[in-house]
């Protein structure tokens, strides 16, 4: 591939991403408006702006200045509180409708529930079961909706999402027939949104596809399996991509910025803004907006009580624990899902980023900033999956374990708690404060659309166009294809500094190239260029493809402001292998210090905070696993 061809391909990829609808003037300028039809001059201008190879998200300082620069006479249209999937989705939806938008997040984008998900983008197969047996058309509509949104998520972020076959084991012939019919109905309902057809495999075929699946156990014999397809994602990187896309489109997004109080008008009747503390500097400022959208996840009740201390709680928090195991527990391209174990729970094992993620639990929990898994929950998962495997399941194999808080929503206007649901709730119980909570990752886009619609109604806002996020690929997604990694392997080197300070050239091997392609999409070339030109081509941890260059890139282009931001959300090392993340910390901090001009005191503080964070991931302290890859 010639250099000219390569540049043309890169330009096409970046430009097509613009075509999907996110834009990038410097943020102090107003957003560029996109016509709803998708072919007008405004959208063409938007495509041209972001197609510029020099386009980059505005700096954090510019974003903060945009929020500080508002006033009661010159407010934002929408200020979003919360930088998770829903909040970032709301910001993206609103700014691409031509509204002036700001977003603040107390910690980091995806620092809460959105980074601690099951990693599945599912179409609601369990809703279908309820719809059939309860003859419930409402549940059937949920399935249609989830399937449509599943398709949208995968289409809009193809580098971060993919179809995953999931195997359901059957231990009697009734289960074979039951699951086969049910999943064929799932295929039928999916229609044009179908990922792949489900099918039955014999016991022999099943163990060929999933070698660790047990054929015998507890007096049962495997009769076969039914395999169906759902989606899988890199949740935190998808969330960060949404926030960065909103920034490129003209939104003022600011992480590590905490709302400490809400501002009311002179009559004390309507919310008109928020008092915000920049947690990196400790300085506070006011930001004004016509409407506040509360997308704070499990903490949305705390925000609502800033407006009305007597507000009735909406959140019923539920804990979901997951563990990560070595890759040999599951094959690379096949997951295992047991819809109902003998004690009635759901158990799964899924390949994810070269390891195996298993779960999950569903139990009541208090709301905390850093939820931790309990040992009995970890043991429950290990015991549950051991019933279906022919390998010894060991606690010492647990590379990482984490807990996430699901914000199950209850409509505060309901008269009883029977309204608790995994569907989402949009509610305005204080003029100027719209709350969106509940729901699931799969439907974040439509949840955001509903929230923006409510905000427009509340603030009598005048968007220039309707919602366009159903045809909007996030940054790095447009023009990407699974073979994009070959550009990196053929065109880039990994230049590394030896312990003696000498530059040592190295190949951009397939593992590293595939990782960069999957994590950054068409922007992976920017990361590869840093690895080559700035001698940051070393791996950060043995056995994992993460490169030093990623730390520098994320600090410059993805608002990576702390060591935890990188090891947990920009890379996923903390979630994949807690001990490996700990070993990588000194080098991560060294690179971030160079990028952000940290002094020795700040570096020491970052190391301490990161170690405390990793202690909440209950890996086995003596877990020893080296697969020999990526040396």
What gyration radius follows from the Cα positions, in whole Å?
24 Å
Beta-strand percent range = 15-25%
How widely separated are the two ends? 28 Å
Helix content: 25-40%
Largest sheet entry:
10 strands, mixed
Unreliable stretches: 1-39, 622-631
Helix tally equals 20
Number of strands: 22
User: Which oligomerization state do the chains in this entry correspond to?
Assistant: single chain
Mean pLDDT: 88
Short description:
The protein is of the alpha+beta class and 631 residues long. 38% of the residues lie in helices and 21% in strands. Strand 6 (216-217) and strand 7 (220-221) form a beta hairpin.
How would you characterize this protein structure?
There is one protein chain. This protein is of the alpha+beta class. It has 20 helices and 22 strands. The strands form four sheets. Strands 3, 4, 5, 8, 13, 14, 15, 16, 17 and 18 form a ten-stranded mixed β-sheet that branches. Strands 1, 2, 9, 10, 11, 12, 19 and 20 form an eight-stranded mixed β-sheet that branches. A hairpin with a 5-residue loop joins strand 21 (493-497) and strand 22. Residues 1-39 and 622-631 have low confidence and may be disordered. It comes from Crotalaria pallida (Smooth rattlebox). Residues 467-602 form the Alpha-glycerophosphate oxidase C-terminal domain. It catalyses: a quinone + sn-glycerol 3-phosphate = dihydroxyacetone phosphate + a quinol. Its EC number is 1.1.5.3.
């Amino acid at each position: 591939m010639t250099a000219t061809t390569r540049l043309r391909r890169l330009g096409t990829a970046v430009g097509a991403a613009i075509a999907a609808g996110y834009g990038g003037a410097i943020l102090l300028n107003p957003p560029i408006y996109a016509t709803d039809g998708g072919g007008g001059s405004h959208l063409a201008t938007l495509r041209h702006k972001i197609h510029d190879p020099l386009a980059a998200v505005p700096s954090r300082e510019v974003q903060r200045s945009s929020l500080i620069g508002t006033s009661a006479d010159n407010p934002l249209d929408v200020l979003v509180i919360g930088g998770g999937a829903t909040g970032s989705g709301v910001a993206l939806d609103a700014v691409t409708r031509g509204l002036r938008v700001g977003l603040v997040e107390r910690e980091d984008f995806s620092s809460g529930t959105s980074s601690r998900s099951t990693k599945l983008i599912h179409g609601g197969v369990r809703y279908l079961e309820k719809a059939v047996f309860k003859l419930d058309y409402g549940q059937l509509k949920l399935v249609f909706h989830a399937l449509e949104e599943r398709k949208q998520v995968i289409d809009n972020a193809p580098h971060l999402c993919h179809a995953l076959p999931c195997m359901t084991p059957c231990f009697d012939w009734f289960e074979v027939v039951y699951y086969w019919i049910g999943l064929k109905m799932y295929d039928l309902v999916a229609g044009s949104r179908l990922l792949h057809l489900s099918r039955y495999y014999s016991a022999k075929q099943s163990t060929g596809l999933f070698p660790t699946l047990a054929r015998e156990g507890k007096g049962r014999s495997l009769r076969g399996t039914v395999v169906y397809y759902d989606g899988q994602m890199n949740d935190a990187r998808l969330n960060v991509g949404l926030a960065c896309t909103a920034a490129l489109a003209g939104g003022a997004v600011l992480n590590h910025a905490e709302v400490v109080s809400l501002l009311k008008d002179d009559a004390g009747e309507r919310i008109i803004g928020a008092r915000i503390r920049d947690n990196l500097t400790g300085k506070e400022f006011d930001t004004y907006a016509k409407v506040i959208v509360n997308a704070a996840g499990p903490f949305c009740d705390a925000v609502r009580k800033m407006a009305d201390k007597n507000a009735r709680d909406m959140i019923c928090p539920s804990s979901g624990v997951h563990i990560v195991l070595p890759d040999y527990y599951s094959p690379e391209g096949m997951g295992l899902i047991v819809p109902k174990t003998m004690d009635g729970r759901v158990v799964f094992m899924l390949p994810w980023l070269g390891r195996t993620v298993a779960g999950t639990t569903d139990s009541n929990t208090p709301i905390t900033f850093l939820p931790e898994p309990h040992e009995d929950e970890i043991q429950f998962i290990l015991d549950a999956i051991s019933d279906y495997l022919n390998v010894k399941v060991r606690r010492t194999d647990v590379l990482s374990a984490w807990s996430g808080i699901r914000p199950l929503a209850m409509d505060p206007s309901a008269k009883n708690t029977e309204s608790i649901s995994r569907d989402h709730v949009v509610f305005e119980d204080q003029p100027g404060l719209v709350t969106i909570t509940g729901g699931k990752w799969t439907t974040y886009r439509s949840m955001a659309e509903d929230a923006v619609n409510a905000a427009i109604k509340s603030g009598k806002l005048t968007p220039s166009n309707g919602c366009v996020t159903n045809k909007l690929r996030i940054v790095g997604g447009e023009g990407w294809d699974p073979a994009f990694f070959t550009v990196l392997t053929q065109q880039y080197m990994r230049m590394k500094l030896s312990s003696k300070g000498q530059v040592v050239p190295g190949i951009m091997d397939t593992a590293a190239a595939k990782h960069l392609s999957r994590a950054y999409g068409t922007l992976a070339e920017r990361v590869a260029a840093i690895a080559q030109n700035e001698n940051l081509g070393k791996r950060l941890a043995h056995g994992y493809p993460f490169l030093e260059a990623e730390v520098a890139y994320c600090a410059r282009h993805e608002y990576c402001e702390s060591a935890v931001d990188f090891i947990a959300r920009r890379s996923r090392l903390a979630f994949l292998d807690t001990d490996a993340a700990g070993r990588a910390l000194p080098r991560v901090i060294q690179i971030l210090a160079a990028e952000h001009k940290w002094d020795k005191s700040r570096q020491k503080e970052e190391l301490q905070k990161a170690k405390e964070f990793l202690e909440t991931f209950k890996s086995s302290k003596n877990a020893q696993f080296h697969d020999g890859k990526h040396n």
